């Protein structure tokens, strides 16, 4: 029997909460029982302005799910995952049953080792080109989770999507509700949630694309003019596709981290329905865009804090743990 105090479960939960989330909102809860971890969408931490349909929250939970599985694997256990196990509880996104002994693969070990090292690097990247082999590895990581990672410079769409991102950024800059939500999740140093000032990055003064600015700093820096911009897509959409997309996103990000690359998100066009629709038409009607992010060689930064595990767990209904 796997109890909540065991090193396996503790390590799994500590890894899960290191997943990325919009504004570092951490929209997840974990319901624990013997041998079982239920992943639940925390409705109280959904961003109602930029994520009213919960799509980004489900992506974040999917990323947390992959971290959870990797940590269980390197702790020497197998696990089975059931997605959306109860139709009467749509907020219950996945059920993880911890199983027999397991010998972690080299890939599982490499990705698990990257969980704590990965963070969103909102600072300018170096001009060093990302090698073709690294590009392939990151694309392949997304493919292993059933998604596609499109590198825009390779398909001739960088200029068109750049314009879309800039327009979406301008719309959000003028949206008082969005700006109020952004300020609410921009926290003082020492907070365990939101984006602290030290992780917000400088205000963009140039470069090809606007990186979302957090904090009150007026420091301005020029960003790279030739970024590697990736769009992760899925063949379908909806809650299940979004959970799976989150897993694919995290596998790609952990792979990039293991290769010494940095990443950060261009969420603007994903948070405005009309902009997301335009992006879909640019990519092809069979592609459902889920995430846009940049890759490159970043200068060293810091990880953002997370809430402690005790704050995100509760006992499964009808069961107890000790």
From TrEMBL:
<protein>
    <submittedName>
        <fullName>Nitroreductase</fullName>
    </submittedName>
</protein>
<dbReference type="InterPro" id="IPR000415">
    <property type="entry name" value="Nitroreductase-like"/>
</dbReference>
<dbReference type="GO" id="GO:0016491">
    <property type="term" value="F:oxidoreductase activity"/>
</dbReference>
<feature type="region of interest" description="Disordered">
    <location>
        <begin position="191"/>
        <end position="224"/>
    </location>
</feature>
<dbReference type="InterPro" id="IPR050627">
    <property type="entry name" value="Nitroreductase/BluB"/>
</dbReference>
<feature type="compositionally biased region" description="Basic and acidic residues">
    <location>
        <begin position="215"/>
        <end position="224"/>
    </location>
</feature>
